[in-house]
Amino acid sequence: MNSYGTGEGPSAAGPATVEWAVVDSPVGPLLLAATATGLVNVAFHARPAVRDTALDRLRARFGAEPVEAPASARLAEPIRAFAAYFAGDRQEFGLALDWSLTGGFHREVLRELATGVPYGTVVGYGELAARVGRPEGAQAVGAAMGANPLPVVVPCHRVVESDGGLGGFGGGTETKRLLLALEGVLPQPLF
Predict the structure, then answer these.
(1) Cα separation of 8 and 11, whole Å?
(2) H helices then E strands: how many in the chain?
(3) H or E element: which one contains 149?
(4) Active site residue 190
(5) CB-side exposure of 97: number of CA atoms within 13 Å?
(6) pLDDT of residue 164
(7) Would the pLDDT of 190 be above 80?
(8) β strands within the chain, DSSP E
(9) How far apart are CA 63 and CA 46, in angstroms?
(10) Model confidence band, residue 186 (pLDDT cutoffs 50, 70, 90)
(11) pTM above 0.85, yes or no
(12) Cβ atoms 25, 173 nearer than 8 A
């Protein structure tokens, strides 16, 4: 089960420190960023342009320069958790999360996704909308998935179209296929 911080961002005491690192994964480089509250951001394809965009967003939200810290104690457990997940040895991340990069309806949908759609299962956009009391909100759920600052940990790859289509994914449809195959929802690629 994931832990939830307040996720309200910088305190009156000053800007929050954000530590980040880029780690290798079977779906390409991932940027992981954490605050004292918990993991705040995961970004796919963390090559320079994507990395810089993610860092700009963190800088703007927290009012401080994110610090590259691959050996950070804050990042140690997220790095271990991702390695175990991709090795097939972990189904629950169990990480403290900082929800500062999302709010309102998006946060509500993402929290439901994080707690209500377990490893190895999928949910339709419309069904997820109904779970949060907005049965007509499938498109709004899609927007929340596209804005998810914590993909994989908050498993937006598990949200699919009602007709069986994969739907969109910020990490790309091939990444979505690989994650769903890892979780046993889709067959493993032949090559």
Answers:
(1) 8
(2) 6, 8
(3) none
(4) no
(5) 23
(6) 80
(7) no
(8) 3-4, 19-23, 30-34, 39-43, 67-68, 96-97, 123-124, 159-160
(9) 22
(10) confident
(11) yes
(12) no
